[in-house]
User: Which sequence fits this backbone?
């Protein structure tokens, strides 16, 4: 892996992020809304509203507003949320751990179930188990996330009362046990503090949203693993290994899966960014206090700085993940090195 390749990818990442930032900024400014009313408050006078317009540079042309925003952005000032009156960067970074924790758990579920399903289907190609898995993965990749979230919330949360239907943790339990988040990742924080009741409660709250969110990457992972394993299992060296009498598990997992896994990793990396977007609807339905819930509240209140901040942080994550996946792919498979 050459340094020039990595530098080129980082430069491209920066261009993509700033391109997304500029496009999003312009679009939000073209939306017919009156953010100065939100900034000045519901009982503001005309003088206060006009003062708010000057403070927010709303009387200036768009390119002047963009200049001020970019100037502050590179300094680490992403603006102030017109809804919460807090710095956008602080709000985004405070909400981000909840989303990342949910997405990471969803991806662990997707990988742990998806890859074995794909391998199992490939080993039983064109049999009943293979057909069932293929149909289920097609359905899993096609079902709208928001619809499935509403269904499982209704069934398991409201009707059966098996699992919590909303929120991230029981607030009463937090007060009773004295739980104080450290990193914002509640599962990790509960383990650090040795607070097992909170750990189990957070895990229970996470089961429904994480399972719903894992369905698409799980289906994608299973389908790609199955397709690539079918192709690799027909290669000459696999047939030769079987002819030599090597154990079936050794041939399947050491030789076949190793050569099929690289494209799966690449697709999962790209779907990670997609899953973050899917988490927005899941968080809104399950009242999960992550970046998706924050974005939804910001959209409803035309909170321009918060909207831009959320989109930029998602673009950064998507671009960084894409770059890291490409590098890992190149390390695993030297043929893709450029």
Assistant:
């Amino acid at each position: 892996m050459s340094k020039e390749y990595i530098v080129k990818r980082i430069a491209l990442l920066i261009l993509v992020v700033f391109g997304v930032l500029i496009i999003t900024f312009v679009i939000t400014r073209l939306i017919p809304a009156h953010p100065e009313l939100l900034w000045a408050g519901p009982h503001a006078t005309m003088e206060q509203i006009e003062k708010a317009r000057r403070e927010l540079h709303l009387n200036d042309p768009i390119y002047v507003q963009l200049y001020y925003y970019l100037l502050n952005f590179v300094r680490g000032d992403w603006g102030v949320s017109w809804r919460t009156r807090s710095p956008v960067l602080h709000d985004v970074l405070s909400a981000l751990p909840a989303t990342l924790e949910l997405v990471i758990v969803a991806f662990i579920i997707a990988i742990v179930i998806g890859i074995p399903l794909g391998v199992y289907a490939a080993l039983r190609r064109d049999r009943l188990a293979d057909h069932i898995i293929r149909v289920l993965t097609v359905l899993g990749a096609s079902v709208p996330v928001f619809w499935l979230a509403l269904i499982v919330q209704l069934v398991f949360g409201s009707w059966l009362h098996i699992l919590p239907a909303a929120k991230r943790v029981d607030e009463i339990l937090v007060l009773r046990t004295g739980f104080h988040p450290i990193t914002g990742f509640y599962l990790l924080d509960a383990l650090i503090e040795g607070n097992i009741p909170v750990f189990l409660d957070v895990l229970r709250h996470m089961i429904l949203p994480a399972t719903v969110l894992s369905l698409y990457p799980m289906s994608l992972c299973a389908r790609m693993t199955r397709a690539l394993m079918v192709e690799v299992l027909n290669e000459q060296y696999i047939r030769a290994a079987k002819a030599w009498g090597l154990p079936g598990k050794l041939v399947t997992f050491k030789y076949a899966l190793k050569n099929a896994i690289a494209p799966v990793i690449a697709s999962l990396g790209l779907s990670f960014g997609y899953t973050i977007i899917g988490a927005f609807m899941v968080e809104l339905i399950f009242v999960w206090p992550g970046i998706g819930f924050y974005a939804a509240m910001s959209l409803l209140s035309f909170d321009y700085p918060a909207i831009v901040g959320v989109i930029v942080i998602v673009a950064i994550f998507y671009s960084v993940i894409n770059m890291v996946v490409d590098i890992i792919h190149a390390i695993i498979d030297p043929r893709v090195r450029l």
The domain at 88-336 is CATH 1.10.3720.10 (MetI-like fold). The CA atoms of residues 273 and 318 lie 5 Å apart.
